[in-house]
Design a protein that fits this description.
Length: 996
């Protein structure tokens, strides 16, 4: 390192003293600017469905390029889910790896493997900008890419294909060198396949180490021989029988060599860094280093004396001395204290990737949860043992500016940055992000008058507007900012992530405090997968598109009545894309990095499994002991080392101030810590026995309480004592009608005892649809299942409204995600309903609210601290409430179409029958056999185990036929001229739709 580069590093750190100004001063500076000044220095940015904004072009000289692989058949296609960057040892070439959905369907609606690969983008970075030179297609990938030390080639992990691809330089391009190297590993779990993840090259360039994510092992490859020469199971019990059942080594994601004979691997589930001794043909575990967070990315410095670990969930970077494996430093990455002090220790920054500056005095960390790169000045805690200093004249110049490493600035990025790199000369940095705003998806499965149902379905799928297909990646390039520019970008990041919003909260305090002292009970109802336009597009007010409405008022009279009578939220966005991210956001206001990496891969059928509701590898980790697991589900393998313990790789952590343990960052955990009472009906359960093929299957029974048959097995230890075990979980063959009947049984007891829980968790999921041939009591078409869900919702609200708890109870209703339908505004736009006392009446609220705002509102009412950074910095939904609206009532409406089922409707609580049993919606358009045929091969055993594009297409076709008009992705505001629009839509139905 030269004196000049050391001086630059010192000057940069010293000049950033401007960032130590109090947070109020920074916020005041923004607030006092007029609009023109604000536009000149700060950007408003694009609003995300998580409630924050992104401004990737905020940096001076920044460029943001889509990752177009130049497919001949799809020249406009842009890849999504970029996950990793690898810069060649000579600094001339940069590789960008994608690992996600990236599936495409052709004009005939058939899946086209040739244009449905993952990609390695090859950029020339020898100049001042990244120039795309080549794009390499890879069938499957997951996180792993690494260069040969001599710049002659690189390696890519093949994900679920359980192999490693080898590429070599051939003149100006790279070509695959022979067939991929097979790993021959097995997945640990139930119906689990292997998954090749992170890869690393030994310093001598002779061996390759691979993290086998699903096998809890690492494989050592002899590169010259092109074969695996050693594999090591990382679980303690597999090498020492006395440690059987001891957690350790599971879900290894990232690996790195510290020397030819030493490497590290990070275990995400068990939160440990494992030091490995690498022999000529062997691997041994030499030490296990426990850390607070989940190690998701490891790098080393040039002389390999320090290992830097991005630790998700703890929001820290951990630094190891590679000589003795000691942790020598750990520091937070969220923000400079001057911008956000984070006294509560809120989590959610999600550091997930790292890069060192050429002088190794600055660390760049991708804070994926904050859509920013943290700039960290490395201090004496990192270099305290570094005695390799130059002459005395250089000592003052070379000394780190701080005693302890700390974040000195933030750089705004695109949505969910996954990797960062710095060019060799240190002037330019590169960042790739994994996601983007999806925008409207009105063309998601509709077509004008094709010749047959099959043709319609194919044409729908060909539109390629599934939410993960609309989520795109990008490459951000910008000059490494100087001190003044970094100060400006840091304030921009603060605006994007709502850091200054602490001032705004003062305006919300009065309303929230009013509610806090009057509302004693919150009922949180979560449903499944519908968009706003699908259900409420035909409302007389609001920005709905009736041409996209599949389940209008006659089918969903209660959804419509509740929106009409209370608040219509026509710009509400679900924060998650699909159920795996959706249920995390819906219950914890964030999703951890493992879930974000898992979700698109799993939904693309590129490996992994649904790990986000308390099951890891399809094993209930809410139950600690193997004996109890097997008692709950006899199909559980008899293996004490199969994800032992209750750690959950997908679970978020609470704030440090809460005192909660790892993985207890959910809404119910916060309520329990606050001493509140809770009751769970259907949240987070083991569903395996609902679809079992043997006598372990839990039968469909309308009254399990009467039979004393346990039908629900919670997957969260904290929920076990608070769960109604007679309330069935997600099962599309079961009617929501009977779920509500069971809830009403307990609710009657609560009324009798005058003891309603402070927080009730209620899941009614029949708006997901499926299992048409198995469905009980003839609730066997999408219209009937949606009507069942609607009546269940209306019955819950009406029951509370008629109870002694009505005066101090609020009900919040939301969909966990909006993936299964079209919407003309945004693929994330969905339904949210808020009902009860002090809620405004007949109000249209078009403010952009999200799942995060909904959770923040419930927390404020219950007196709970925030779950994490997102909700902690979000606004409560103050606009929804009016302290003068004390009285409320509701009478459930019975969708007339339900009279066609065998449900015992006469036994239900008195309900006002919907006045619109019109010919249009008096009966399903097709019977169960039709739906079984068009949905053949779909898996309805759990959420979203579907070929979702085909499911959506079949749903549209079966309900709309060929009558729909093709729509453009306009995002038009349809609030104006509403009366005429609705009248035209009614006329287009060509049937008698009763007017309201």
């Amino acid at each position: 390192m030269t004196l000049r580069t050391r001086r630059q590093a010192t000057v940069l750190a010293a000049a950033l003293v401007a960032l130590t100004a109090p947070i109020d001063a920074a916020c005041s500076e923004v607030a006092t600017k007029n609009s023109n000044q604000f536009q000149d220095e700060y950007l408003l940015g694009d609003l995300l469905p998580t409630g924050v904004r992104i401004t990737p072009l905020a940096g001076a000289g920044a460029t943001f390029k889509p990752l177009n692989p130049n497919l001949a058949a799809l020249p406009d296609f842009v890849a999504g889910q970029a996950v990793e960057i690898a810069v060649s040892p000579d600094g001339q070439t940069m590789l960008v790896l994608t690992s996600g959905f990236n599936r495409n369907f052709g004009p005939d609606g058939r899946y086209v493997p040739a244009v449905s690969n993952e990609y390695v983008f090859v950029f020339d970075i020898s100049g001042h900008e990244a120039v795309k030179r080549q794009v390499i297609e890879v069938p499957n990938t997951f996180l792993g890419i690494a260069w040969q030390g001599d710049n002659t080639g690189f390696f890519v992990a093949g994900g679920k294909d359980d192999n490693v691809h080898v590429y070599r330089r051939d003149s100006a391009t790279f070509v695959e060198d022979g067939v991929p190297i097979p790993l021959h590993t097995l997945g640990n779990g139930v119906n689990v396949k292997p998954m090749a993840g992170g890869v690393a090259i030994s310093p001598d360039g002779k061996r390759l180490l691979v993290a086998n994510v699903q096998s809890d092992s690492v494989s050592l490859i002899d590169i010259a021989a092109r074969k695996v020469i050693a594999e090591r199971d990382l679980r303690p019990g597999k090498t020492d029988k006395t440690k059987a059942g001891t957690p350790g080594g599971e879900f290894p994601l990232s690996v790195v060599f510290a020397a030819d004979d030493k490497a590290y691997v990070g275990s995400a589930r068990d939160r440990e860094i494992i030091s490995l001794e690498i022999g000529s043909d062997s691997i041994a575990v030499s030490k296990r280093i426990a850390i607070a967070g989940q190690p998701v990315k490891l790098i080393v410095n040039k002389d390999r004396s320090r290992a830097f670990v991005a630790a998700d969930n703890s929001d820290t970077v951990v630094v190891l001395d590679t000589h003795d494996d000691d942790v020598i430093a750990e520091f937070q990455t969220a923000a400079p204290p001057a911008i956000f002090r984070n006294a509560q220790g809120l989590r959610g920054a999600s550091p997930n990737n790292l890069a060192l500056s050429p002088d190794e005095r600055t660390l760049f960390v991708t804070n994926a949860g904050l859509n920013a790169v943290a700039v960290v000045a490395l201090g004496m805690d990192i270099f305290k043992d570094d005695d390799k200093r130059d002459a005395d004249a250089e000592k003052e110049e070379a000394k780190p500016a701080t005693k302890s490493s700390r974040v000195i600035g933030l750089i705004p990025t695109g949505w969910y940055p996954n990797a960062v790199a710095v060019a060799r000369e240190g002037h330019t940095m590169y960042i790739v992000n994994g996601k983007s705003n999806a925008g409207p998806n009105p063309n998601g499965c509709q077509r004008t008058r094709p010749r047959s149902d099959a043709a319609i379905i194919n044409a729908c799928v060909a539109r390629n507007e599934y939410i993960w297909q609309l989520s795109k990646a990008g490459l951000l390039s910008l000059p490494v900012p100087n001190a003044r520019e970094l100060a400006r970008l840091t304030r921009q990041s603060a605006l994007n992530d709502n850091f200054p919003s602490v001032k705004r909260y003062r305006r919300d305090t009065e309303t929230m405090e009013f509610l806090r002292h009057r509302i004693k009970h919150v009922v949180y109802i979560v449903k499944e997968n519908r968009t706003y336009d699908q259900i409420l597009g035909d409302l007389k007010i609001g920005n709905g598109d009736p041409s996209l409405t599949l389940f209008p008022e006659p089918v969903t009279p209660n959804h419509h009545a509740l929106a009409d009578a209370f608040v219509t939220l026509d710009h509400f966005l679900d924060s998650g894309e699909t159920s795996n991210t959706g249920w995390q956001w819906t219950t914890a206001a964030r999703s951890n990095d493992y879930s974000e990496k898992n979700a698109p891969v799993n939904y693309a059928r590129r490996g992994l499994q649904y790990d986000q509701e308390g099951e890891n590898r399809n094993i209930n980790v809410g139950i600690a002991s193997l004996a109890e697991r097997r008692a709950a589900n006899p199909a559980t393998p008899d293996d004490p080392d199969l994800v032992p313990g209750t750690a959950d790789v997908a679970a978020p952590d609470p704030s440090t101030a809460s005192g909660g343990g790892a993985g207890t960052g959910y809404l119910w955990d916060a309520a329990l810590r606050a001493g509140l009472t809770i009751r769970n009906y259907g949240f987070f359960g083991d569903l395996a026995r609902y679809s079992a093929a043997d006598d372990t299957r839990i039968p469909l029974t309308p009254d399990p309480f009467a039979e004393k048959r346990q039908v629900f097995f919670p997957t969260k230890a904290s929920l076990v004592p608070h769960t109604d075990l007679y309330y069935r979980g997600f099962d599309q063959a079961f009617a929501d009608f009977y779920l509500v009947k069971e809830w009403k049984r307990e609710f009657a007891e609560q009324v009798e005892k005058a003891a309603m829980p402070n927080l009730t968790l209620l899941r009614i999921a029949h708006d997901h649809f499926g299992d048409f041939d198995k469905a009980m009591d003839g609730v066997n078409t999408p219209e009937l299942q949606m009507a069942d869900n609607d009546f269940a919702l209306g019955t819950i609200v009406a029951t509370v409204a008629a109870s002694p708890f009505a005066k101090d109870t609020l009900l919040f209703v939301v969909e966990d995600d909006a993936q299964d339908g079209a919407d003309h505004v945004d693929a994330h736009r969905s339904i949210a309903l808020i009902v009860g006392p002090y809620v405004r009446k007949a109000a249209l609220i078009s403010k952009a609210y999200t799942t995060v705002n909904l959770l923040r509102t419930m927390e404020a009412i219950l007196g709970l601290p925030p779950l994490g950074l997102n909700d902690g910095l979000a606004e409560p939904m103050t606009d929804v409430f009016d302290p003068a609206e004390t009285d409320w009532s509701y009478q459930a409406k019975l969708p007339g179409i339900l009279r066609m089922t065998r449900l015992p409707l006469d036994q239900a609580a008195p309900a006002k029958r919907s006045g619109s049993a019109a010919p249009c919606f008096a009966a399903p358009k097709h019977g169960a056999q039709y739906w079984e045929t068009v949905m053949a091969g779909q898996d309805f055993s759990a959420e979203d185990r579907l070929d979702t594009a085909r499911f959506n297409a079949a749903l549209w076709t079966g309900l709309k036929g060929g009558t729909a008009l093709s729509a453009q992705r306009s995002g038009a505001d349809l609030r104006h001229g509403r009366k005429t629009l609705i009248a035209q839509w009614r006329k287009s139905l060509r049937c008698d739709l009763a007017r309201r």
